[in-house]
Model the fold of this input.
Amino acid sequence: VQLVESGGGMVQPGGSLRLSCAASGFTFSNYDMRWVRQAPGKGPEWVSTINTGGGRTYYADSVKGRFTISRDNAKNTLYLRMNSLKPEDTALYYCARDARLRGQGTQVTVSS
Done:
């Protein structure tokens, strides 16, 4: 049972990235999924949640209108499209199924 994120990197302010989270070992389509981030020296911050079918999505105010969460249940993969990135978006981003399962994370750095 695991979640593996990819797609992070360094980008200039205003740039875009798409993160992916590959799930295995459990029935992905049965679970709501979420993205969480943690900036250096700070606690975890919830970013977004998507329901099992992908029809309902929720966002933190800090990313609303800039980030888009989606999922492909056929591919057991969760995505986070991030546009108009800001330096304050710099963090380790990880996907989570629930309190018991999260990935190792992928680093996003927004800097000029």
The chain has a mean pLDDT of 97. The radius of gyration is 13 Å. The CA atoms of residues 9 and 75 lie 23 Å apart. DSSP finds no helices and eleven strands in the chain.
